[in-house]
Amino acid sequence: MQQTIYLAGGCFWGVQRYFDLLNGVISSQVGYANSKVESPNYHIVCSGITEAVEAVEIVFDSTLLSIHTLLKHFFNIIDPFALNYQGNDIGTQYRSGIYAKDSSLLLNVRDFIETLQKGLPKPIVTEVKILKNFYPAEAYHQKYLQKNPNGYCHINLNAIGEIN
Fold it and tell me: Is 153 annotated in the active site?
């Protein structure tokens, strides 16, 4: 079954590249989620006035990649305690978040986070919200690390082998 989820975990280049390596991911594109401004571009998003977040639209086959496994991967590559930053990426556009149009998918996400939170010393600040909008980023951002293998990435792409 095909499902779509939007993940924000700092700079969208690394998040996209990581998930593109997973079996079960059908497609991905980077963009700006939940913007107050219609059709924002990178520079206006970086200004903070849009309240948009850099996110990756991930279409996946849930028979090959369960939402539970997808979320395990996501939380393995982000710092869920970091508010408005990931790695060296600082600003509200780099906050961590999980978004979907499907509220039942978000219930699964909330259950996963609730279970994960048990026993952790600090609260998880990753936001979980209904997707209001998603605007694809500029062409040069799409599949950036595939086109530029030595480009900046705050994510350890080798962490993919850490999740079963």
Answer: no
